[in-house]
Amino acid sequence: xxxxxxxxxxxxxxxxxxxxxxxxxxxxxxxxxxxxxxxxxxxxxxxxxxxxxxxxxxxxxxxxxxxxxxxxxxxxxxxxxxxxxxxxxxxxxxxxxxxxxxxxxxxxxxxxxxxxxxxxxxxxxxxxxxxxxxxxxxxxxxxxxxxxxxxxxxxxxxxxxxxxxxxxxxxxxxxxxxxxxxxxxxxxxxxxxxxxxxxxxxxxxxxxxxxxxxxxxxxxxxxxxxxxxxxxxxxxxxxxxxxxxxxxxxxxxxxxxxxxxxxxxxxxxxxxxxxxxxxxxxxxxxxxxxxxxxxxxx
Length: 298
Ligand code: SF4
Ligand code: SF4
Ligand SMILES: [Zn+2]
Fold this sequence. Notes:
Blueprint: H1 3-10, H2 34-77, E1 87-92, E2 98-100, H3 103-121, H4 138-146, H5 152-161, H6 178-187, H7 193-202, E3 207-209, E4 216-217, E5 220-221, H8 230-234, H9 238-250, E6 255-260, E7 276-280, E8 286-289
Parallel strand pairs: 1-6
Antiparallel strand pairs: 2-3, 4-5, 6-7, 7-8
Helix pairs in contact: 3-6, 3-7, 5-9
The structure holds iron/sulfur cluster (SF4) (2 copies) and zinc ion.
């Protein structure tokens, strides 16, 4: 805190406006003025955000220390043992496995899908917006870019993680909405309601990752990129974003990424949690290694 403010507080004055604090508010360091109180609330909230971020960073640094030996081995496997010359990262890792689809979840998904299709097409089978040029729609142009996908050195993050963010797709019915169906129609302007519905339903896997999105499988998303919701193609968590930064900074085509379960600190002992290592070599070959173990949590 600014030394002047500390002094003002000690003097029994408001630390925001410097006016005397009435006796009933003594000890709070803030007068009764709503402006000062709002300011104090904002300061307290941002101090809390900062504290949480510091806590998170400290926890992640401990996680990183547990797997640094795996990063080194994985980098070597990718053909570049010098860590200054290969993009490296640590991401979350989900250990959940596939289970048969749940009927209730499927029903809800189908209802939502039907609603999204009805909203996108309206009453007519050839809505007016579909007659306009796709290239004149900035959203569509951006969407088409996101649909391209990324290099494998970056996708290594999601391979190591196994789709932590796709868990959100359960409660949100794979994020499919009217806009998703409009993208679909842009690419398949002749498609009718039933055809679209069948296309989405036919992509549903028999089994999906427990408690996750209906399309989430052991090998990733069962929907092709062009059929996914916009957010599924666009979203990037901070761990993947950090790996993107590494790739940009080091100009690396190779990467070495380790997936560490979020609850790894429940198993602080050496070799505790299961982890996954992914190496991408210069020829974009992918090597997945589930045989490594984390070191002890210190
Ligand atoms: S975007 Fe992040 S959270 Fe989602 S699968 Fe990839 S690494 Fe995991
Ligand atoms: S549709 Fe695919 S990318 Fe989107 S949440 Fe579901 S599994 Fe993940
Ligand atoms: Zn004040």
